[in-house]
Amino acid sequence: MSVRFAHLHLHSEYSLVDSTIRIKQLVAACARAGMPAVALTDENNMFGLVKFYKQCTAAGIKPIGGCDIWVSSPDDPRPWRLTLICQDRDGYLNLSRLVSRAWREGQGTGRALVDAAWMHPESVRGLIAIAGRESEVARVALTAGLPAATLRLSFLQRLFPDRLYLELTRTGRENEENWVRAAMALAGDHELPVIASNDVRFLLREDFDSHEARTCINQGRVLADPKRPKDYSEEQYFKSPEDMEALFADIPEALENTVELVKRCNLVLEFGTYYLPNFPVPEGHTLDTFIRDLAQKGLEERLSQHPIAAGKTLEDYQARLDREVDVIIRMGFPGYFLIVADFIGWAKDNGIPVGPGRGSGAGSLVAWVLKITDLDPLQFELLFERFLNPERVSMPDFDIDFCMDRRDEVIDYVARKYGRDHVSQIITYGSMAAKAVLRDSGRVLGMGYGQVDRLAKLIPNRPLDLTLGDALGRTEKARKEPDRVVKEFCDVYDQEEEPRQLIDLALSLEGLTRNAGKHAGGVVIAPTPLTDFAPLYCEASGEGVVTQYDKDDVEAVGLVKFDFLGLRTLTIIDWAVKAINRRRAKEGTDALVIESLPLDDPKVYDLLKKAQTVAVFQLESRGMQGMLKDAQADRFEDIIALVALYRPGPMDLIPSFCARKHGREAVEYPDPRVEPILKETYGIMVYQEQVMQMAQIVGGYTLGGADLLRRAMGKKKAEEMVKHRATFREGAARDGIVGDKADAIFDLMEKFAGYGFNKSHAAAYALVSYQTAWLKAHYPAEFMAATISSDMDNTEKAVTFLEETRAIGIKVLPPDVNASDWMFEAVEPRVVRYGLGAIKGVGQGICEEIVAERKAKGPFRGLVDFCQRVGSSKLNKRTMEALVQSGALDALGENRATLVKHIPEAMRAADQEAKNRASGQVDIFGNAFGEAEAPSIIELSGSVPEWPLEQLLQGEHDTLGHYLSGHPTDPWKAELAQLGSCPIGEIPQRYQPPKPRRNDDDENTNRFRRGPDTPWTVAGMVVGMRKRGESDAFVQIEDATGMLETSFFRDVFTDAAPLLTRGSMIVVEGGLRIDDFAGGYQLRARKAYALSDAMEHFGRLLTLKLNGVGPDFPQHLRQALMGYRGGRTPLMLAGYRNAEGQASLELGDQWRVRALPDLVRTLRTIPGVLGTELRMVRPAD
After folding, report:
1. Helix 497-509 and helix 434-444: axis angle, to 10°?
2. Are 1160 and 1172 in contact (CB under 8 A)?
């Protein structure tokens, strides 16, 4: 009979530094090999323990929990490895504490180390230690001999009496056999057991290369690097018991001892019990009595400030409250509600904006009366059972939105209240995704960047879950969804050897856990120190403490998760309301309370009907704007429905929703009794709550049972649906609805349940949408200033909001160091001042310094004064140039060209003044003037002419992301006007849709065929392009009046591609039509050419307008025309005069020119030339 064996030293992918073993595959390998147990001993962490424990237990394999720790000793700078195994619950808790402390206190050298002094008999109780070839004992034995090793061994023996094993490995690594002999001698001398191990890092021998690549990715090395450490051998795979028996045939007790060690380990992890922190209640109260008392008082307070919902009575509210409180107490969750209400109350008391609700929690009346949410669930028919189902015991889960900037203050409050060692955020694990793993694999293989980049770019960004296996057509998902297969990627794999090697390596690594991060909002609060439940992990600085278990695993071990989410919109609302209230205070009107807005304000619905919703929460996308125009929302319930419908799937219902709302389609109900439920959505099931209520009314379900039905429908579990269908038919029959009719209603419910939306969440977020729309409608300057300020670091978004600000008639003043603050600011009801924070290349610190100095000592009087007062140590040439180019220093000098010239002089003067101050010197004015008034006595050199408009605009674009002083098309305005059908901004006024073609309304017409378009020519500058594949592109063309998206397909794109670079001036001929999907207009290009080609070929007369030219004018003219003579465009001098007289002269044919932009630009700079005019005539098509 063969000796049984268990692997007790094994790393999984969660080690991060090494190992390619996935837990699911490990468990399957154990089952195949007939191994009754296996240990997980990841490097310095317990990330995977819960997943490992659950999967082993489910497969009938005994899970052994443990960890490889690295120990630092005071008398040896080199850390050493010790493998610790949990015998029982005490061992698990002690290991959790040791590992947590290593991360929090032992990261000084870049690796989490356990200080040997932390280990004493009590701190390692319940732990078994395994000392192997990388232990201190082995190191000393192999270098200083067995007597010296005995001293080290005695330290471990005192810590782990009868719980110390020596590990023997035979994987072909350096000094292994020497250690085996030394270990056997030590074991004999000290009566210690030895165990056989394979120090496993990968499952199969052939996985060695993938494993080496994984370690190189972690180390930032390449495989071919001769200096990289070779710490692993190809023998460290998951060997079978038979392989291990053959390997240790001479030491059979080493195999038997693994089984004996397994028998000593009996760690039990309990799942499914929740441990809430202890919420302090007043004397004389329990949690149950306190929540009932608070809820009753809260209801009275709420109803004193809010009207009772239409069709409801006080008794309805009281009955609902009593029922909810009873359920909460019966399910054991009063503490949860009280904890959430407490930290939300603290946030509100401290001026931290909190969202009105999120998720299904808004369906709870108790949540509303405790001020957890701000939406009356009875007013909007929101269901408590959708949040907390008495028929399905699971933790309630409030997701709370806080102002993004101050969310951490609330988390800090919770940590202070419950104890910092009781509160933590939650870990997330980053994995090697398709594009990233290709790049990583290419790097470790030493392949060129260009080659790897080409491969990575073949993988599309969407869908987000696309894998390399999908792209190659190897997965079940790819077989069901052929669009996932990337043909070009497959071709490269099939036809090119080197890329195939790279892709094969990437396939073996894809999906492995690569790094640890932090969950966006998850926070756990424990009743005792967190390490009683989960080990902790943190950054090298000791900051950013998170649990080592992810959100699923922390809940499994009983910790309760609270979601503290950051919502930028709340920050915007907060900033806007504060600015509005500053204005209202000056006007002597009451402060605005955003939570008390009436939900029927006509100005809000006018704004929504016009779809002027840029910057309005959830309603700003082009598709949503098109839907708003169709829907013509005129009540809050419409906003809720539109928020719920605007998603893949339900979007198909939008046309019917709009048609029914406006009477173009009949409203029908599947059963007359459900009309009250479906009336607000015109007979269409939009919400999950409507499905639940229909099950209650038609099928006789309780609301708790209806929630279970909704969940089953959403998961599409066939066997559950058969049972529910029978239950539904039985309930419907009691009211006289026969089988077929009941089945039809059930089928309808099942269809809608698949993509019905949570109404509680939609209603809460619709309220935030309404609030932002109200602010935009009533206080647009303050709202847009706050919106732009929130995205100052995202130039593209800031520019979009700036364009909208101007589009709604608000003036935007340029940046100015003598007027601007860090953020954008509404200085008048329809005027916004630029924020210095939006200038690229100027940091927040320097901007705040500028504002503080100006507010303390008055406006800056010149460039030297600015440099001296702000401080040359804080300013540098790059920052100064950015301030000049943005126009923020315009008030301090003659022009921008002169300001840039004077920067070095001004900064030298500031340096000198700083040195003088440091040495105690004062200038001759020092006694006569206070510090604020002492004028500069520095003389700057003379001025220079201003830059050309193009240079001014380029500087603005580089620093602000857009143009302030004009537009790059301005110098060519006359030329573009002759080439285009009209300025882009005038298209809505000028465009006339063509008459419908015959059969356009035919029902059999292909619905995807384009309707007729209108011949149109657009002339402007290319400002952006997004490609679709290699043959199509959507190009944004802009002039000073607006922007138009132009589509280029196939041959048209191929021909025009060289012209479609950002900043190019082009002319596009094509067909213009209304863009039904995104709103606005779109041009389909048929032909494109450069402005320079148009000017040269269509120019019929180039006129120079003169004003008193000098005697050297002919010479200047000849020089300007050099290189441009011999063209087809005649030249005229208008207003030329000399001693003989004045006339307009058309020069002879030998003066004909190529009327290119560079020539026109040069001619405009000749002294005496007022301007140019090029008359063009385009030939008829």
Report:
1. 120
2. yes
The answer to whether 493 and 384 are in contact (CB under 8 A) is no
CB neighbour list of residue 743: distance below 8 Å, 6 or more residues apart: 725, 729
- Report in angstroms the alpha-carbon separations of 703 from 437, 673, 675: 47, 16, 18
Cα–Cα distances in Å, from 417 out to 342, 371, 398? 10, 20, 19
Burial level of 1093, CB count in 10 A (0-12/13-18/19+)? Answer: middle
Q: Is the peptide bond before 968 cis (omega within 30 degrees of 0)?
A: no
| CA-based nearest residue to 670, from 699, 641, 646 | 699
Q: Which residues contact 202 (CB under 8 A, 6 or more apart)?
A: 19, 20, 21, 208, 210, 211, 236, 237, 238
Measure the CA–CA gap between 378 and 356, rounded to whole angstroms.
15
The secondary structure of residue 983, as a DSSP letter, is: -
Exposure string for 311-324, b = 16+ CB within 10 A, e = fewer: eeeeeebeebbeeb
- Do the bridges between strand 560-567 and strand 536-537 make them parallel or antiparallel, or are there none, so unpaired? unpaired
Residue for token digits 């005539």? Answer: 1177
Distance CA 655, CA 627 (A): 9
Residues 903-924 pLDDT 10s:
999 998 888 888 887 777 655 4
| CA distance linking residue 219 with residue 216, whole number of Å | 5
Whether residue 554 contacts residue 547, with contact meaning beta carbons closer than 8 Å, is answered with yes
Inter-residue contact 437 to 509 (CB < 8 Å): yes
Which amino acid is present at 653? L
Predicted confidence at residue 706, as pLDDT, reads 85
Q: 990 CB contacts (<8 Å, ≥6 apart)?
A: 981, 982
Q: Note the Cα 791 to chain centre separation in Å.
A: 14
Span 433-444, pLDDT tens digits: 999 999 999 999
Q: What is the dihedral of CA 419, 420, 422, 424, to 10 degrees?
A: 150
